[in-house]
UniProtKB/TrEMBL annotation:
Superkingdom of origin organism: Archaea
Keyword Ribosomal protein: no
Pfam families named in the record: Oxidored_q6
Reported cofactor(s): [4Fe-4S] cluster
Keyword 4Fe-4S set for record: yes
Keywords: 4Fe-4S, Iron, Iron-sulfur, Metal-binding
Similarity remark: Belongs to the complex I 20 kDa subunit family.
Protein name as it appears in the record: Formate hydrogenlyase subunit 2
């Protein structure tokens, strides 16, 4: 994906994508929302009689050809937002036991290709300045106290965001670090793409103007 972005940037003279104000330049098929029916061999029980469960899915592709990717990057659930975060959103990432994939995708949204800062999204180095705690990875005993202390250090109002299948449901490796009722935002994927992260964080900011613009552009394309 990065090489495609680099070549497009050289040709067009544009370093940063306009997403979510425009369609993604090179959105991946995996991970994205899956569409299908029946069958599907799933190691994490993400395929049920009622259909696909995005929060459990690790996008291992074992469900092919019964389920196929749509390219839709909006694989997240927003349970709670705050009006306070409309203009700026400061997030503190914490690794409770990740493999490193979610960490890399999270850091990439601040690279020149995506530049999350232009949307008012900033990473901070202490939970004392954070609006949201982004939890990555499965539960490990040594991180329980660190998670609790990070949450307590955050000022009100605050959000807790589960990033990736491991944080949301435990994935294929273990157990989720927090009970799901404690999450205000759940981002699916193993790991989620930078496009999914940007869309989810943007939605958590509750900026209706951005959301309406993106939805209108999406409808024009489809």
């Amino acid at each position: 994906m990065s090489s495609i972005w680099f070549l497009n940037g050289v040709k067009k003279g544009i370093k940063t994508e306009r997403y979510p104000y425009a369609e993604p330049v090179s959105a991946p098929q995996w991970p994205s929302r899956l569409s299908g029916h029946d069958g599907g061999n799933c190691p994490v029980d993400a395929i049920t009689p009622d259909g696909w469960v995005m929060e459990k899915c690790i996008f291992c592709r074992r469900c092919l050809p019964d389920y196929k990717p749509t390219g839709d990057q909006r694989i997240f659930t927003i349970k709670k937002t705050e009006d306070t975060f409309r203009r700026s959103f400061h997030v503190f990432p914490i690794d409770s036991g990740a493999c490193g994939a979610c960490n890399m995708e999270f850091l990439s949204i601040f690279s020149p290709q995506y530049d999350a800062n232009r949307l008012g999204i900033f990473m901070v180095n202490t939970p004392r300045y954070a609006d949201a705690l982004i939890v990555m990875g499965v539960m490990t005993p040594g991180m329980k106290e660190a998670l609790d202390r990070a949450y307590e250090a955050m000022p009100e109002p605050k959000l807790v965001i589960a990033m990736g299948a491991c944080a949301v449901t435990g994935g294929i490796m273990g157990e989720n670090p927090l009970d799901r009722e404690k999450y205000n935002v759940e981002i699916a994927g193993c790991p989620p793409s930078p496009y999914t992260l940007i869309a989810a964080l943007n939605a958590a900011m509750k900026d209706k103007r951005k959301a309406d613009y993106f939805e209108s552009k999406r409808q024009e394309v489809h």
